[in-house]
Write a structure and sequence with these properties.
alpha/beta, TIM Barrel, 2 domains, nine-stranded mixed sheet, about 30% helix
């Protein structure tokens, strides 16, 4: 990258803006224009301010600055890596599990991650659900009484105007069998100032409302993020996190330890660590499952359970999410061998007698 330039006060959406901010090497513009023509680009001032332009391997830049390798697909990759389309009975709804659904009211985000599993769908051209489509989605939820939880995702639901978001949360809370509304968002990291008093009021409900924020590197746990989280918690909205295991961003035990501890100290419960999905042009972000397991094993015993997420994989094709972390017990010759955090094995009786 080039040497530091004055920080922008607006979201960077064009390749020439990234060049002017010193976030790409001069001469890369033409090839990165091709990437931007295929996949949306947006880097907020908050995130741009976290990037060290002098570091060619900066972990924040790696997540958001376009890379020519995004246009080089791998044979195993899929346009719809977790099978949303196969599980979408009507527009805006993904119904993969009987007791919960995804509701996607918007397809735009304040920032676009280069590894996004919905990268073929999200971006400025993605229209929000119309009123009629939203009503149809709500009718679907009302008609399926097994639905206990509704997850607002997208896009990023927090880009909705607080009044509109509040009305959607209220409509969901009015459905008797819906007991939990969960909101998946990158906004508190990308633009903490979006978490205003008005937005927080919009999330207040008689039903349980959770916010799950997407955070991948300890540098993202800023003072502004901690303040945004505190505003949510004071309003009775619990906050959890999900992270993606990314090569060159957080693929070492020390970085993951710092991330999970920083989140826990900010009153955010680390919930999931996702193995990256098979999205097109993202092979340069992916580790092997063996490497991911090794990292999780290194954290066991040195990070408390409160700060340790579950390492999970979305089975390609829409077959659901499963834990893929290391195993610590195996049956052998009528007894169990249990491995402790130091790697030593101990016998344990088959019935715990």
């Amino acid at each position: 990258m080039s040497k530091a330039q004055p920080r922008s006060t607006r979201t960077l959406r064009r390749i020439r803006d990234l060049a002017a901010a010193g976030l790409i090497v001069r001469g890369q513009e033409a090839e990165l224009e091709n990437v931007a023509a295929r996949y949306a680009v947006a880097i907020t001032p908050d995130l741009a301010g976290l990037i060290d332009p002098a570091d060619p391997a900066d972990p924040i830049a790696r997540q958001f600055v376009p890379d020519a390798r995004e246009l080089v697909p791998s044979p195993e990759e899929r346009a719809d890596p977790i099978g949303d389309a196969a599980k979408s009975p009507i527009k805006g709804i993904v119904h993969r599990y009987s007791d919960r659904v995804l509701l996607t009211p918007v397809h735009v985000c304040p920032v676009y991650c280069r590894f996004c599993f919905r990268r073929e769908k999200v971006g400025p051209g993605g229209a929000a659900l119309t009123r009629a489509e939203t009503d149809a989605a709500l009718d679907y939820i009302r008609a399926h009484r097994a639905i206990f939880e509704v997850i607002l995702t997208g896009g990023d639901p927090l880009v909705l105007a607080p009044k509109k978001l509040g009305a959607l949360v209220a409509a969901l809370a009015a459905i008797p069998h819906v007991q939990v509304v969960r909101i998946h968002t990158r906004a508190p990291v990308a633009r903490p100032g979006m978490v205003t008093a008005e937005l927080v009021r919009a999330l207040r409900s008689e039903k349980a409302v959770y916010v799950v924020l997407h955070c991948n590197h300890p540098r993202e746990v800023t003072k502004a993020l901690r303040a945004a989280v505190l505003r949510l918690i004071k309003a009775g909205v619990p906050v959890l996190s999900q992270s993606v295991l990314l090569k060159g961003v957080n693929d070492d035990a020390a970085t993951l330890e710092a991330l999970f501890r920083a989140l826990a100290a900010a009153r955010v419960k680390p919930y999931y660590l996702h193995h990256p999905d098979l999205a097109p042009g993202t092979a340069h972000f992916r580790l092997s499952l063996a490497e991911g397991r090794s990292l999780m094993k290194a954290l066991r015993g040195r990070v408390s359970g409160l700060a340790l997420p579950t390492y999970v994989l979305d089975v390609p094709g829409g077959h659901g999410k499963v834990p893929v972390g290391p195993a610590y017990a195996e049956e052998s010759a009528g007894t169990w061998l249990v491995e402790d955090p130091s790697g030593r094995r101990h016998r344990y009786p088959p019935r715990g007698a």
